[in-house]
Design a protein that fits this description.
By secondary structure, this protein is of the alpha/beta class. The chain has a single domain, classed as Rossmann fold (3-Layer(aba) Sandwich), CATH 3.40.50. 33% of the residues lie in helices and 19% in strands. The protein has 5 helices and 8 strands, in the order ββββαβαβαβαβα. The strands form 2 sheets. The chain has a 5-stranded parallel sheet, sandwiched between helices. A 3-stranded antiparallel sheet has the order 1-2-3, with helices on one face. α1 links the parallel β4 and β5.
C-alpha cells in the first residue's frame, strides 16, 4: 500500500509527497506557479537552502523550483560553508537549529569568509520556527539580513527573493 502525504503550506500550493518516487523524496505541486514570467536561464539566481528537516527541504525546494531559481541543498552549517566555498550562491536561506554547526554560527562563518575576501557578498535570510524578538535579534546579530518564520509562506518568500535578488518577476 502506497502512502501519500499532502502538505498544505501556509499561503502556497498544496504539495503531495510519496515515498519511493525519486529518492529520497518527491513532491508534486497541484496547479501552476502563481504570478510572474519564467526567469531567463542566463539570469537565474542560485539559492542555497540550509535545512536539516526532510519535509521542510521538500517544501522549500519545490517553492524555489516554482519560482524558477536554481537551488542547492546543505543539511547543516558545515556543509553550507563547504558548498559556498565551492560555488558562492546568490542568496542563502538558513535554518537556525541544526546538528553540528547551527545557522547562527554558519552565518557568522560565512560573513567572516566574506570579510577575508574568500567569498563574495550575498544575502543570508534566516528561515526558522523561532519567532520571538530575541530570535530575530540573534539572527541579525549573527550577520543575517532578514528573519523569515516557518511555516513557509510562498508569497512572502517569493517577495523576499525578488527584493534581495532584485528580480521584478518574483515581487
Amino acid at each position: 500500500m502506497m502512502t501519500t502525504q499532502t502538505l498544505t503550506p501556509f499561503n502556497g500550493p498544496p504539495l503531495r509527497a510519496q515515498p519511493g518516487e525519486n529518492a529520497p523524496g518527491h513532491a508534486a505541486v497541484a496547479g501552476a506557479a502563481p504570478g510572474g514570467e519564467p526567469l531567463d536561464e542566463a539570469v537565474k539566481p542560485t539559492v542555497l537552502l540550509v535545512e536539516d528537516n526532510h519535509i521542510n527541504q521538500v517544501v522549500a525546494l519545490e517553492f524555489l523550483s516554482l519560482m524558477g531559481v536554481h537551488s542547492r541543498l546543505a543539511k547543516n552549517g558545515l556543509e553550507a560553508v563547504s558548498l559556498c566555498l565551492e560555488a558562492a550562491p546568490d542568496l542563502v536561506l538558513m535554518d537556525i537549529q541544526m546538528p553540528g554547526m547551527d545557522g547562527l554560527e554558519c552565518a557568522r562563518r560565512l560573513r567572516e569568509l566574506q570579510r577575508e575576501g574568500q567569498l563574495p557578498a550575498f544575502p543570508i535570510l534566516a528561515l526558522t520556527a523561532h519567532a520571538l524578538e530575541a530570535d530575530v535579534v540573534a539572527s541579525l546579530d549573527a550577520g543575517m539580513d532578514e528573519h523569515l518564520t516557518k511555516p513557509l509562506d510562498f508569497v512572502a518568500l517569493r517577495a523576499r527573493l525578488g527584493r534581495w535578488l532584485k528580480l521584478p518577476g518574483l515581487n
